[in-house]
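Let us practice reading a record.
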Amino acid sequence: MDAFIFFVFAALALVSALGVVFMRNPVHAALMLVVTLVSVAVFFLQNDAPLLAAVQIIVYAGAIVVLFLFVIMLLGVDRADSLHDPVRFQRPTALALGAILLAQLLFLGGHTWATGAAQSNDTQMLHGGASVGNNIERVARVLFTDFLWPFELTAALLVLAVVGSVVLARRSGEKFEVTPEPELASPVSDELMP
């Protein structure tokens, strides 16, 4: 039964991930992203990681995708997409950076270059050999001690993204209308007019 659930959700995750890339409507792409994230949460449940499954659904499928939809709706989806690059060499640069990122994930995965933290084989013992309870306590202790600075930077980055999207939406929604100048009073008085 576990194999059947895995293959069903693996196919669903692959199809919805391709839908994220190939959908032309950004709202539909965001909804496909929700399906992908929920499928990954099922994989976490199959690997006996209920905390990661809950975080996957609450944080990613809930908050992050809602943030994406908020920005999409704020900026408007009724405008036609342009295939013209506003910045020269934007696509080749993006492809090169994506290839570098893929190489880092494949060849440097599992090393300490991303976080700077030393890896430990024993996850039960943290901070000088002190045992720290269940899974939630271990995650909370590491998140709010070793990784507090990146956690706070991520929160600030999300707030800045929302503020930036509001500013961009207001600028794009402004209409510059030319108002006619008020007419000047006629130098000839009304008494002289027949």
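A brief commentary: The CA atoms of residues 115 and 147 lie 8 Å apart.
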